[in-house]
UniProtKB/TrEMBL annotation:
It comes from Coemansia erecta. InterPro entries: AMP-dep_synth/lig_dom (IPR000873), ANL_N_sf (IPR042099). GO terms for cellular component: endoplasmic reticulum; membrane. Transmembrane segments: none annotated. Residues 100-485 form the AMP-dependent synthetase/ligase domain. One of its GO terms (molecular function) is ATP binding. Its EC number is 6.2.1.3. It comes from the Eukaryota. Keywords: ATP-binding, Ligase, Nucleotide-binding. This is Medium-chain fatty acid-CoA ligase faa2.
């Protein structure tokens, strides 16, 4: 048995599904189109897809307008039939590798994204999310490597699609989600008029690219209906591109079987019904689609955001969602503002908020419920109302969530906040906390139907024999694991160990059976004391300081201490730093340049380290203050799923790190280092 091999831990499974399978009343659903068919038959004429009405005169948004399950089915049938005609006329070629036809989708989250994907499934096509955020080359690579001939996109994406046409020679058709006569304004049509669209039409014609709009394709299908194609579980569902922390793009191939296995398992774990879900995390990536299809098992109303991240909270107040999925890095930004106005406030309001948080956190952790008659009325109902006041569950993923933040939002929203773990290669699913779990600092247990185990990484000091908690690289096995990377068999082999997928993440098994993330292979820092240092864990602790928004630590084998980039929390930092610098009118930028302030922040971090019993090699000796978050300095610092690319940040700040170390007396003599290595 593989789990008995030396260097591997035993296999761990969901405590309720120890057989490794998850047979249920949904076992007859084998494709995502069958899942949609289940929805329209079980919940006919129910509100399904919603988006806020847009008023161009005032550039404002109204209430949510809804498409019912029955209405969506009619649209999908007509759109699928229309796309059949488009492919027959302009792009009849079948991909020789897949035996199917791909369709590219390029837009922010909106109803047409989901409708296009379901229409593609109806006709046995598979989707490829395309992005132009990371630059033209990203879209070019995706379109060319997957041999996309038809792209459905919002109007604002058409100009760049045409500009890159000479570099994407296989592209034959662009279908605009927005009407080409501009008769139905949306946030994507603001910069366009009938005249500018005429220019686009002329350019498309000159490039021999058919330019249509979705309404016209739907009408074609309505007048010339075609029969749905037979879809098999083994058929391709989607190719989802992920940049990864290495920075190079990889197209993860998923079949309907992998997607159904992952989402059905997640549904069995969460057991949510009649959900209202707020969709704003990019549908191009796996996480948001994973959520939508999971909630479809128990019926879901999907309300899409209005297109502006500045209006997310406004959208939520109008929609009043019951479930909210969010990345910790985005949640951290919200936390900074909300905590600053409550538990971080001065005066009586701050005192009451802090006392209320302590009281509610204790109440929640002991299983006495999420509501508190006094503290909710005085403090937390105001916070919950900013998120719509109706959230029953918040789920985070992509990276570990600060325990203090998890406790704060449990108290502030009067609901459970749980963590999950997955990767693009596992359809976003792998592990998740159960809905009755009140603990933190872990990502839960394996989803039903998912096996996990650890693999020792002795070079980094992680072994499955470690006491009291086995530690090692997290490995995942199950039908939710991808089929491989598009056209990259070598990279597929690199990530697979037999039928097990190596995640690259270091984890440990806790005494209660839950799994915690420790760090990522390649991110570990080796200090002059020859200890391996886990930066992610340290950054979580240091970022918990009330003056700080985020911390990035750096170390090297020549140094006994770390240095760090510190992004301050403006609301609390500025008044504090002004008093330290003696500059009553100094702004954030000026204060970040003040050497006295930087030294004082370093002292604050060292005191925090002592409080958490952090050993000297993991303490910070000097800091560089950045007035803006790292993601605003260079978007290449993060992957598309908001995971830090440490090697890129290290390279960017290399000279500054050397300057910081030059001010410290913690650098080991190179001769001594050579002697130690010998």
């Amino acid at each position: 048995m593989a789990d008995l091999y030396v260097g591997y831990s035993p296999i761990y499974r969901h405590p309720k599904y120890k057989s490794g399978t998850h047979n249920s009343e949904f076992s007859n659903i084998t494709t995502l189109y069958e899942l949609f068919d289940h929805v329209i038959k079980t919940y006919p004429k129910k509100e399904f897809i919603g988006v806020r009405d847009y008023y161009p005169e005032t550039e404002s948004f109204g209430q949510y307008a809804w498409i019912t399950t029955t209405g969506a089915a009619e649209t999908i049938n007509s759109l699928g039939s229309g796309l059949d005609m488009v492919y027959t006329k302009y792009a009849p070629e079948i991909n020789l590798t897949t035996g199917q036809q791909p369709i590219g989708i390029l837009a922010i989250n909106r109803p047409e994204w989901l409708l296009t994907e379901l229409a593609a499934f109806r006709s046995r096509r598979y989707t490829v999310g395309v992005s132009d955020i990371a630059g033209v080359d990203s879209a070019e690579y995706v379109i060319n490597s997957t041999e996309i001939h038809v792209v459905v996109c919002s109007m604002d994406k058409i100009p760049r699609m045409l500009d890159r046409a000479n570099k994407t020679p296989g592209l034959k058709v662009i279908v605009s989600m927005d009407k080409l006569d501009c008769s139905k304004p949306s946030i994507a049509t603001q910069a366009f008029s009938k005249d500018t669209v005429d220019i686009l039409k002329t350019k498309a014609e000159s490039l021999n690219i058919a330019l249509l709009d979705m309404d016209a394709v739907i009408e074609m299908g309505r007048l010339n209906p075609t029969a749905p194609s037979l879809l098999k579980p083994s058929d391709l569902c989607t190719i989802c591109f992920t940049s990864g922390t290495s920075g190079t793009q990889k197209g993860a191939i998923h079949t309907h079987e992998t997607f159904i296995h992952a989402t059905r398992g997640a549904h069995l774990s969460l057991e949510l019904y009649n959900t209202t879900y707020f969709s704003f995390m990019s549908l191009m990536h796996i996480f948001d689609r994973y959520a939508i299809y999971t909630f479809m098992f128990g019926m879901v109303r999907v309300g899409f955001f209005s297109g502006s991240t500045a209006k997310i909270l406004e959208d939520m107040q109008v929609l009043r969602p019951t479930v909210f999925l969010i990345s910790p890095i985005i949640l951290n930004r919200m936390y900074d503002r909300i905590a600053g106005a409550t538990v971080g406030a001065t005066g009586i309001s701050g005192v009451l908020s802090r006392f209320g948080l302590k009281s509610k956190t204790k109440r929640i952790s002991t299983g006495r419920g999420f509501r508190h008659a006094l503290w909710d009325r005085l403090v937390f109902d105001k916070v919950a109302s900013k998120f719509g006041g109706n959230i029953k569950l918040m789920v985070t993923g992509a990276m570990s969530l600060n325990p203090e933040m998890q406790d704060f939002f449990r108290a502030a929203l009067s609901c459970n906040v749980i963590q999950g773990y997955g990767q693009t290669e596992t359809v976003g699913g792998g592990l998740i906390q159960t809905t009755d779990d009140r603990t933190n600092s872990n990502v839960g247990v394996p989803n039903p139907g998912v096996d996990i185990r650890l693999r020792s990484i002795p070079d980094m000091g992680y072994n499955v024999t470690d006491k009291p908690s086995p530690r090692g690289e997290l490995m995942i096995r199950g039908k939710n694991v991808f089929s491989g990377y598009n056209r990259e068999p070598e990279r597929t082999q690199e990530i697979m160990d037999g039928e097990w997928m190596a995640t690259g993440d270091i984890a440990k098994i806790n005494s209660d059976g839950s799994i915690s993330l420790v760090d990522r292979i390649g991110n570990m820092i080796k200090s002059a004391s020859f200890l391996w240092i886990e930066p992610a864990q340290l950054e979580m602790i240091y970022s918990g300081h009330h003056l700080i928004k985020s911390v990035f630590v750096y170390g090297c084998v020549r140094a006994y201490e770390l240095v760090a980039i510190v992004v301050p929390e403006q609301l609390t930092f500025v008044p504090w730093a002004r008093s330290i610098a003696g500059k009553a009118d100094a702004d954030l930028i000026e204060l970040c340049k003040d050497e006295g302030v930087a030294k004082k922040i370093t002292q604050e971090l060292r005191m925090l380290a002592s409080k958490h019993h952090i050993p000297p090699p993991e303490m910070i000796g000097a800091v560089h203050m950045e007035p803006v978050p790292l993601e605003q300095i260079n978007r290449e610092f993060y992957t598309s799923s908001l995971k830090i690319r440490r090697h890129i940040v290290n390279q960017h700040y290399k000279a500054r790190f050397e300057e910081l170390y030059s001010t410290l007396d913690c650098i080991i003599d190179p001769k001594v280092l050579i002697e130690r290595n010998n």
